[in-house]
Amino acid sequence: MKKRVSEKILMKGNEAIAEAAIRAGVKAYFGYPITPQSELLEYMSAQLNSRGGVFLQAESEVAAINMVYGAAGCGERVMTSTSSPGFSLMQEGISYIASAELPCLLVNVQRGGPGLGTIQPAQSDYFQAVKGGGHGDYNLIVLAPNSVQEMANFTYLGFDLADQYRTPVLILADGALGQMMEPVVFPDYDIVKNKVDHSSWATRGKKDGKQHVITTLHIEPEKMEIINNHLQEKYRDICDKEIRFEATKTDDAEILLIAYGLSSRIAHHALELARDEGLKVGLFRPITLYPFPYRQIRALTKKVDSILTVEMNAGQMVEDVRLAVGEKVPVHFYGRTGGVIPQPEEILEKIRAISIAPQMEKIF
Amino acid sequence: MAKLHGHVTINIENCKGCELCTDACPQNSLNMSKNINKKGYHYAILVEENCTGCTNCALVCPEAVMTVYRENKNRIIKPAPMASIDSKNISVSIS
Amino acid sequence: MSKSIQSVQCEHLDKMDIVWDRPDTLIDVPMHYCPGCGHSVVHRLIMEVVQELNIQDITIGVAPVGCSVFSYNYMDVDMQEAAHGRATAVATGIKRVLPDKIIYSYQGDGDLAAIGTAETIHTINRGENIVMIFVNNGIYGMTGGQMAPTTLKGSVTSTTPTGRDLSIHGHPLNIAEMIAILPGAYYVTRQAVNSAKTVRKTKKALLRGFKNQIDGKGGVSFIEVVSNCPSGWKMTPLQSNKWLDDNMLGTYPLGDIKVPEKIA
Questions:
Q1: Contact C46, C134 (CB under 8 A)
Q2: Angle, CA C158 vertex, CA C157 and CA C164 arms, to 5°
Q3: What is the rounded average pLDDT for all residues in chain A?
Q4: pLDDT tens-digit map of A31-76
Q5: How much is the average pLDDT of A285-290?
Q6: Looking at residue B75, what is its pLDDT?
Q7: Crossing angle, helix A13-23 and helix A38-47, to 10 degrees?
């Protein structure tokens, strides 16, 4: 049996998330079809009901996220997945889930926008993902995988963090990661050991004389502020403990690339091309987009001469990079939008230009 | 046949003076007090001894402030709770 | 001069039976509703049914947005407060992971028949084995008396200052009749709480709905309760209950709309 668990399987990223979620003991999946994440929904529809959970195709993303609210409120492991336009529709429900402190896993396999946009991969929901997204002061823990293996790994991690902090966790992927096939190994995972007991607050029928209520309504401002202070305290705790990142060849780097998810893979290719030309280039990859590794990026400004942020959008994470860096070193940006994937050669050209003239780029 | 003799006690502090009970009472046994409760409402009181304990006032009362009594003769007992339901024995089908 | 009104005392209460008392399942606090509001009566009836069926510890309710948003302060069962219109999606989520528990949703007309219409229809169409309680008072009470989907023709509200004009605002929505045609609707009824007689019938309908769920009957038990809104209608409670009889029931006639066929 052990052998089976550790064997390599060729899978799409979307399927890897679904399989990992089932192995992590997901009790319910509620979702709605949307390209390019539908394989996740379809995998769940084929597997989950016979493997100890409940699959339900909802009438909309709005309904799906509220089904997640209801089931998460019962203390069960639940999740949903969608792509950009659907994630916009879910924002109201996510705000409620964050306020009510319900643990759950969300997946956004991003596509190009705005509007109905395109079904091609993009990273243009960064702001929406890391700055809250819906109304009110809240944040999600945002995990950004850059491989099919990480799609699986972060599914387990996402459920564990959601349980630990009683907060929604988002896996922010993109259409390419969702669709690409790579070998994946599903690690051993002890569901019983990892599942947190939520019986002290979950609504499962009144027991021992204590009524459990899940609500996000606190009419008195003083009470609402107490709730907000509690949430902010939790987010500070998350920022202290849960920052994850990967640094590649940063020790001697003069130009630092910063990219996450799919664009970090392309940036890594550009790094190799640049190193071949003798350009000292490093790569910093935020893995948690919230909490964002501000301090770690700031520390690197002592070593590098300039920074180039690469994204598949018009410049979103670069704002957080500038927040981290301030005026210490110039921060450049290279991005493609609308579902166009930047090529390593395009990034290399930008690196060459920066190596000649590393002055500050105009922000406005 | 003699009418059933009943009585009503009222939690006057929770009464909001909506007067629905006075209208629902077939015996005109209830009226509104000239006095007010702590919330400032004229509360309902039983003013006649002709209450039959029909419970109409309690049924329409939004605040559930009534307790209705009825004499033992011609006894009608409030239905007892049904047998305890074992949650494990509830079968559920979802189409 | 009017004589002062004295309360009648009874010296032999101990020899009498209590034939009606506040159910223990209704939390003993004053409700926030306006004097004479039907919501309070519906809350109490649900709790009477929960008590009589002895299902308090396996019942989970879902509260809406609207005047009854605080209903968990009164109904002593585990409850979740849903976003506006989403109560039945939340109830679906609960029922699907806890199928042995008894689930009910409680919504007003704006919640169930306007912003939540899609969730309403699809929850019923899936035949979720839950009780849906729909309180129809033809107005948005909490936000200050705006037009609801169920507002009657000609009714003056704060957003129909010259009365609901069907050519502009559309028609009152008979959602119970609409959803009754769905196979997933198991039991559909419309009752009221504006008199002792109608309150008795509403209680019976609620009892039947919850029993349907306990028996595992496939489908939604949908109980609409036509109710008043004295503040929104700008009437006394007594006037509002009479107005309900004279006006609401023409558009929203009382009685069972769909009754399960008897299985031999």
A1: no
A2: 40
A3: 96
A4: 999 999 999 999 999 999 999 999 999 999 999 999 999 999 999 9
A5: 98
A6: 53
A7: 40
At which residue do the structure tokens 């991005």 appear?
A335
Per domain, the residue ranges of chain A are: 2-241, 245-356
Query: Is the CB of residue A173 less than 8 Å from the CB of residue A261?
Result: yes
| Angstrom distance (rounded) from CA C258 to CA A101 | 40
**Which class for A327: exposed (0-12), middle (13-18), buried (19 or more C-beta within 10 A)?**
exposed
Write out chain C residues lying below 8 Å of B6, CB-based.
Answer: 16, 19
Residue C77: pLDDT above 90? yes
Helix (H, G, I), strand (E, B) or coil at C155: coil
Question: SS3 sequence, chain B?
Answer: CCCCCEEEEECHHHCCCCCHHHHHCCCCCEEEEEEECCCCCEEEEECCCCCCCCCHHHHHCCCCCEEEEEECCCCCCCCCCCCCCCHHHCCCCCC
Residues in C touching B34 (Cβ below 8 Å) = 4-5
Report helix, strand or coil for C258.
strand
Which chain B positions have a beta carbon within 8 Å of C183's beta carbon? 95
For the record, the structure tokens of A216 come out as 């996000």
Fold topology of B6-70: Alpha-Beta Plaits (3.30.70)
Question: Which neighbouring-strand residues pair with B9?
Answer: B67
CB A9 within 8 A of CB A181: no
**Cα C210 to chain centroid, rounded:** 14
Q: Do A56 and C96 touch (CB under 8 A)?
A: yes
Interface test with C, best of A44, A59, A96, A223 (most C CBs within 10 A): A59
Q: In the CATH hierarchy, which fold is given to the domain comprising A2-241? A: Rossmann fold (3.40.50)
Question: Counting Cβ atoms within 10 Å, is residue A216 exposed (0-12), middle (13-18) or buried (19+)?
Answer: buried
**Which CATH code fits C33-258?**
3.40.50.970
Considering only CB atoms, B78 lies closest to which of C19, C35, C238, namely C19
Q: What pLDDT, on a 0 to 100 scale, did the predictor assign at position A219?
A: 94
pLDDT over 60 at A28, yes or no: yes
Query: In one letter, which amino acid is B17?
Result: G
> Tokens for C87?
């109560």
Distance from CA of C153 to the nearest CA of B (A): 27
Chains that touch B (3 or more CB pairs under 8 A): C
Domain at A245-356, CATH class: alpha beta
